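Table S4 entry, RpoE-regulated lipoprotein.
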Amino acid sequence: MSPLNWFGSSVEVSDMGIAGINASTPLNEAAINKALDDNYRLRSGMGTRNGTVTSFYQALDGDTVVMTISGDDSGKVKRVNVENDAIKTAWGVKIGTPFSDLYEKAYGVCQKGQGDNANDVECVSKESRHVSYLFSGEWRGPEGLMPSDDTLKDWKISQIVWHANAI
């Protein structure tokens, strides 16, 4: 069990990054381990995002993926996807928070998810353009279209995403 579980998580997502990970963090195992205080086991891999090859590390607590840290050929961290509800934002938002608790309308702040998240909706945080939320839920509308605000109100955050570059 991770030491974070003994005393509660002190890791949080903010405008500047998550834990010790920020835009200047090198995308390598040693730097990420140091930024996360060696509290997680790291697993490396490669994938694609929007047609670009990306490298990533998954931070695991036991066999559970807590977050995925990814970058591109710049060698720096570009994105962190938080997948564990023990980690929240500096302003208290966490996985499982309903859309209706944060937004009235999707227009201007949300877009259809892409790639692996094509069935989700991604919305920019009101507090930081470096943080977005991936909302998941039930919808049987036409592929490629955004669900209505009335449908989205019951969707919940499935991932919190920190972006090195403001979105």
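Residues 43 and 76 are 17 Å apart (CA to CA).
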